[in-house]
Amino acid sequence: RKSVVVITGASSGLGLATAKALSETGQCHVIMACRNFLKAERAAKTAGIPKENYTVMHLDLASLESVRQFVDTFRRSGMPLDVLVCNAAVYLPTAKEPTYTAEGFELSVGTNHLGHFLLAQLLLDDLKKSDYPTKRLIIVGSITGNTNTLAGNVPPKANLGDLRGLVGGLNDLNSSPMIDGGEFDGAKAYKDSKVCNMLTMQELHRRYHEETGITFASLYPGCIAETGLFRNHIPLFRTLFPPFQKYITKGYVSEEEAGKRLAQVVSDPSLTKSGVYWSWNKNSSSFENQLSKEASNAEKALKLWEISEKLVGLA
Ligand code: NDP
Fold first, then answer.
1. Could you give the C-alpha distances from 299 to 190, 206, 303, 304, in angstroms and in order?
2. Ligand 1, pocket residues at CB < 6 Å
3. What pLDDT, in 10s, does the model give residues 172-205?
4. What is this structure's pTM?
């Protein structure tokens, strides 16, 4: 049978390119878990993904209720779950004021981390039940969360501090919309959320890999300078960023190439090692990359896990 792969945020950018690459293998059925049903259907059609290779299901990660509903809908479909790809994200670098999820968490960390945290926990049972030989749970990371790289050192840098803002529920009612309890900064909130993604992947690996055989992995697919992620940036940035990445930093990858990279992490039999953060070098071969000190801090990963469980109502 075809393997069933759930991809969040498959209506554009990396998620869509990955759905297309997986569809082209002829071995996968992709569940496009998206907040905008019509946009996702149109995107699949425009990308030329054959109908029998995908199903669109509604998921709004900025609402924990919607996450639970998605899990119910998926289970009722009767399909097994072989691979989960947590890909969706919002990036709000020019926001002056914080915006919030349905439950009142700052939107970037609420969507990118907490929504996916609940989704991954709930779907872990479904992954366990699958008879697919290489079950995987992949969380898309980013270089911006790695302060051990040049790009990760562009201010504002990611820093979770002692997580006091997260303990307070990520809003200014109780403490602060930022994880570290500081002033709101949209670019930093995104980077913090990516550190959370990478810490979560490692904590999942420590807790569940041995017992379940599931491969947990994260990756930095390269700088895909043309995706919708930068839609909220100022126009001048959107014009200059792609050539800057192409010719100056040379970190640029096309959506198509990035999609092939993520598709490799989903289905390549040689990328089944668990607990790994994959990256690609200039000739597009994959290697196990190092994470920054904060993004590989096991104590912080545990603390993040325990606070997140409370916030999403699992503990
Ligand atoms: P896009 O903005 O093109 O894609 C993001 C996707 O997330 C969209 O499909 C969007 O849906 C979806 N999304 C946003 N909010 C929600 C929500 N509340 N519920 C469900 N889906 C939601 O950006 P990219 O393709 O660039 O980003 C994909 C991943 O790649 C992210 O995890 C990002 O951090 C990562 N990444 C990107 C890099 C880059 O250079 N672009 C570099 C490194 C990592 P909709 O279509 O409805 O807006």
1. 21, 12, 6, 9
2. 8-9, 11-15, 34-36, 39, 59-62, 87-90, 111, 140, 142, 194, 220-221, 223-225, 227-229
3. 888 899 999 999 999 999 999 999 999 999 999 9
4. 0.96
